[in-house]
Amino acid sequence: MSDDDDIRSALSRAHEPAAPFDAIRERRPRRFRAVRAFALASVAIGMLVFAIAWPTASPESEPDSVIDLTSPTLSSTTLTMPLDSLLVVPGLAALETTPTLTTGGLP
């Protein structure tokens, strides 16, 4: 059961000044230096292995595949998407001209 003394002590603890920043910073553990060094060494070794194992192509070599620019799949210059049919507006020909209201006629 709590009484007024418990509440007063909780309020006094809540309103205590904070510790200085230097004291908090000094409490931070410094155990991650070895982990950082190990991670940096692993990345360096990985980059070295990647650089050595990556095949380099000489400028005289030809590509493995030849692209046929005359094939029907590459001859189209339009891009059709599955939802393009939703952009078709019925009666678009009537909207291509502006009606002239001075003569009273519509196109």
Question: Which helices and strands appear, and what pairs or packs with what?
Answer:
Blueprint: H1 4-14, H2 21-27, H3 33-53, H4 72-75, H5 92-95
Q: End-to-end distance, in Å?
A: 90 Å
Q: How many helical stretches?
A: 5
Order of helices and strands: HHHHH
Name the structural class. mainly alpha
Mean pLDDT: 77
User: Strand fraction band?
Assistant: under 5%
Question: What composes the largest sheet?
Answer: none
Summarize the structure.
With 107 residues, this protein is mostly helical. The protein is 44% helix and 0% strand.
Report on this model:
By secondary structure, the chain is mainly alpha-helical. It has five helices and no strands. The model has no long low-confidence stretch (mean pLDDT 77).
List the keywords.
single chain, 5 helices, mainly alpha
